[in-house]
């Protein structure tokens, strides 16, 4: 410890002595002759090299004409397809076709439905005939064909024929229709008869208005309705004298009863 203390004392004394000596001998002309106390600096060269980030490579020679940037790659030309060339099937396509062919052969064949010929169909299917009586028509009428030129007048359920000029007395036709409805007893008809069923009858009205020759024209399929319709015409005592000229003769009437 004594030697260490002595060493530090000597070191401090040396430093103080150097400072005193520097103050006793000042250096006025340090850096060259000048008139002031300013420091004069003389630049040796103005082109001082700056420090480089990387050390220069001494083995590479710089060229005076640097090469240009690489040109962009040219677009690839599409391959032209020869339309006249025959396509060559690959092995994979041939195997796939063979497998599909075997699968089709393994499936059971469905029998094709036989279609009947047009001639046989026309013979096998009978033509439908509409047997319903239209407004004012007479079907299966027993009126003689000799009176065919005579005109027919109709009013709903009633159609009348008389003379060549027709029976132009609407009030008389309405009278026939009213008397037939009054004498038609619906209690005589079976209740199981479908609604809308019609029964057609024919009868003659003489010049004095009495009915005659009452008969069925077309059955409705319900015997009770057919009988009730015929009885309704026979129950009428008289429809009243005919207003038509005597030369027109009797009046032929077609009437239907509906349920």
CATH class of the domain at 150-258: Alpha Beta
Fraction of residues in β-strands: 5-15%
Radius of gyration: 68 Å
How many helical stretches? 5
Distance between the termini: 152 Å
Order of helices and strands: HHHEEHEEHE
Low-confidence stretches: 133-151
Biggest sheet statistics? 5 strands, antiparallel
Give your account of this protein's structure.
The chain has a domain at 150-258: Fusion Protein Consisting Of Minor Coat Protein, Glycine Rich Linker, Tola, And A His Tag, Chain: A, Domain 2, CATH 3.30.1150. The longest helix is centred in the N-terminal third of the chain and has 23 residues, at 2-24. A five-stranded antiparallel beta sheet has the order 1-2-5-3-4, with helices on one face. The termini are far apart. Helices cover 28% and strands 12% of the residues. The protein has 259 residues and is α+β, with helices and mostly antiparallel strands. The chain contains five helices and five strands; from the N terminus they run H-H-H-E-E-H-E-E-H-E. It is rod-shaped.
